[in-house]
Amino acid sequence: MEKALQELFEFRVQQFVGNERNARDLFSKAEIKLESLLKRSAEIVKAKAAGNIIGTTNEDEFQKVKYLAHYQYLIKQRGNLYLEEETEERVAKFYKGALIMDEEVKPPIMENDSFSIQNASEPEERISYQYDRLKAVQYAERWWNTYNPAYKKFENNCTNYISQCLRAGEAPMRGHPSRGTGWWYQHTNWSYSWAVAHSLKNYLGNSKSGLRAKQVSSPEQLNLGDVICYDFEGDGRFNHNTIVTGKDANGMPLVNANTYNSRMRYWAYEDSSAYTPNIKYRFYNIIDG
Fold first, then answer.
1. If DSSP codes are grouped into helix, strand and coil, which group holds residue 54?
2. Alpha helices of the chain — where are they, by DSSP H?
3. How far is 161 from 164, CA to CA, in rounded Å?
C-alpha cells in the first residue's frame, strides 16, 4: 500500500515538470495548475510531493486510506523564483493491494445564516493603532500548515487563521461579548466575524472603528498583510479568506490560507478544486486606526 502511494507521488511529480506528457494519463490537478501558470508566463521548474497516512479502514478485500498530500513547487516567472506549497486531504482505495481510486476530500463549508449577522449600531470611539504588516505575514508563514494551540481549531479554519494573522499584526479587537458585533476572540468565545468567512467579509466592508479596511477594485492594489475574500459559487455568500504574503513578478498577490492549506499561492485560486467560473472576489486593504 505505501509502495503504491509512493509510486503515485513520483508519477504526479513528473506530471508537473516532465517534458513528455500524455494527455490521457495527466493528473487533473497538474493539468489545471499548468494551465493557470501558462496564463501568467510562469512554469514549475521543480516539484516535490509527499504523503502522510492519517487513517485506514478495512472492508473485506478493500482498504480505504485517508492521507495528507504535501506539494511543493519551485516556480519561475520572468527570471524570478519563488516556492509555493499546499497540502490537501485525500482518500485512496485499494483492492487486494492494488490502487483503484484516489480523490481529494473537499473541506467542509461553514453554513449558518446567523453567522453573518453584524450589529448595525457600532460604537464610534476610535482605537488608535498601526497595523504591523510584517508581523501579520510572519505569523501567516509560521502557521499556514499547522495550528496555533493558543486558539481553538475549527473544522473549517480559514477565517480563524486569517483573524489570527490580523491580530498578530496588532489589529485591535472590539465588540466582546456580543458575538454578532465587532471582531474579537476571548478564550472559549469569539465573534462570528472572527471565525466565519462571510461574517469577516461583512465586518471588513462595514467597520467604522477598531480593525478597519478599505475595499479596493483590483488585486494589484493590495499590500502584504491585506485580505482577499472568496465567493466560489458566486451566490453572494463568501466562503473563504486569504492573506497576502508576497507578490509575483507581475506584482500580483500571492496568498497564504488554512483549510485549503497553502502558502504563496496565486490569488485567483484557478487551480483549486473549489474554483468555479462564477467565483467573485472582494479585496480589502487594512488601514491604520
1. strand
2. 2-17, 28-39, 133-143, 158-168, 192-195, 197-206
3. 5
pTM (2 d.p.): 0.92
Query: Secondary structure of the chain in the HEC alphabet?
Result: CHHHHHHHHHHHHHHHHCCCCCCCCCCHHHHHHHHHHHHCCEEEEEEEEEEEEEEEEEECCEEEEEEEEEEEEEEEECCEEEEEEEEEEEEEEEECCEEEEEEECCCCCCCCHHHHCCCCCCCCCCCCCCCCHHHHHHHHHHHCCCCCCCCCCCCCCHHHHHHHHHHHCCCCCECCCCCCCCECEECCEECHHHHCHHHHHHHHHHCCCCCEEEEECCHHHCCCCCEEEEECCCCCCCCEEEEEEEECCCCCEEEEECCCCEEEEECCCCCCCCCCCCCEEEEEEEECC
SS3 17: helix
- Residue-wise pLDDT for 38-49, tens only, equals 999 999 999 999
Q: Which residues pair with 220 in a beta bridge?
A: none
**Is residue 120's pLDDT more than 50?**
no
Q: Give the cell for residue 139.
A: 505569523
CA-derived radius of gyration, the chain:
20
Q: pLDDT (tens digit, 9 = 90+) per residue, 53-102?
A: 999 999 888 999 999 999 999 999 999 999 999 999 999 999 988 899 99
Q: Write out the three cell numbers for 151.
A: 486558539
**How many residues are listed for the chain in this entry?**
289
